[in-house]
Design a protein that fits this description.
Radius of gyration: 16 Å
Strand content: 35-45%
Distance between the termini: 32 Å
Order of helices and strands: EEEEEEEEEEHH
Strand order of the largest sheet: 2-1-9-8-5
Number of strands: 10
Shape: globular
Largest sheet: 5 strands, mixed
Helix content: 25-40%
């Protein structure tokens, strides 16, 4: 059976690199399912959940915004955040969400506002992925 090489890279490290059967990712226009031999595509992704199916088992990751390059045998995601669902600390993510919301209530410059907004989006994405896996 054909597989895809899924690679997820952040500015800090390569977070995931495995051969998988299928990838579901959060495109800016909606969720995308990618199978081997997919037509080549490069597009933007939104913050959300990536699902990698391997040998009948699903693996989940929370990702931030970024880009994906898809070829017939490879899916390469470049994002500002990627965390495996099992590695998400729900208490820390909730604390980060509260801190970011409190900072947004303050008067901030444009650059600082964008940074805090990105931090809030990262914590909300982590909470959504972690809580979805609990239920």
């Amino acid at each position: 059976m054909a597989t895809l090489k899924l690679e997820i890279v952040t500015p800090e490290a390569k977070i995931y690199s495995e051969d998988v059967d299928m990838v579901t990712l959060p495109g800016v226009e909606g969720e995308m399912g990618i199978f081997p031999r997919h037509i080549p595509l490069m597009t933007e992704i939104a913050s959300g959940e990536v699902c990698a199916r391997k040998s009948g088992r699903d693996y989940f990751l929370a990702v931030g915004s970024g880009f994906v390059e898809i070829t017939g045998d490879r899916v390469a995601i470049l994002t500002d955040m990627a965390i495996k669902a099992d590695d998400i600390d729900e208490a820390k993510a909730e604390e980060a969400r509260k801190r970011a919301e409190a900072r947004l209530a303050e008067k901030l410059g444009d650059d600082e506002h964008a940074t805090v907004q990105a931090s809030l989006m990262h914590s909300l994405t982590q909470l959504k992925v972690k809580r979805r896996r609990h239920s």
